[in-house]
Design goal:
Elements lengths: L1 E4 L5 E4 L7 H30 L10 H11 L7
Antiparallel strand pairs: 1-2
């Protein structure tokens, strides 16, 4: 605390900062929550990528299989 006197001789006391600015506290809390949510989402995404089952392929139709075999020169069974 510093004590000053003005031109009229009245003393006034200049007080230092009392703690953190409330706006800064709100900013830190909100920023922390946003970072926590982003980190959690990323962790869940990575976990899902590792644990999800392989994608099922569509079955190839008999018509397409026959066409591919004819392209390769192998006769289709039953012909």
């Amino acid at each position: 605390m510093a004590e000053f006197t003005n031109s009229k001789g009245n003393a006034f006391i200049e007080e230092g900062a009392k703690g953190l600015n409330p706006g800064l506290i709100v900013l830190l809390v909100v920023g922390g929550l946003v970072l926590l949510i982003l980190a959690g989402n990323y962790a869940l995404y990575m976990y899902a990528q590792k644990t999800r089952p392989a994608r099922k392929r569509k079955p190839v139709s008999k018509k397409k299989m026959k066409r591919e075999r004819l392209k390769q020169g192998v006769s289709a069974p039953g012909e």
